[in-house]
Amino acid sequence: MLNLSEELYEFVWLWFPDIRGKIRCLTIPKEIEKNVVEKGIGFDGFSVGLAPIEDSDLILKPDETSSSILKMERNLKRYFCYVLTPERKPCPLDSRYVLRRTLEGVKNEFGWEFLVAPEIEFFLLKKGKPLDTEIYFGFSNDLGESLRRNISRELFKVGILPRKNHHEVAPGQYEINFKYDNALRAADNTLTFKEIVRYVARKWGLEANFMPKPFKGINGSGMHCHINLRCGKRNLFYDEKKGGLSEIALYFIGGLLEHAKGISAIIAPTVNSYKRLVPGYEAPNLICWGYRNRSAMIRVPLFNRKDCRIELRSPDPSCNPYLAFSVILAAGIDGIERCIDPGPPLQKNAYRRNDLETLPGSLGEALEEMEKDGIAKKVLGDELYQKFLSLKKKEWDDYRLEVSEWEWRMYSSI
Question: Is the pTM of this model over 0.90?
Answer without folding.
Answer: yes
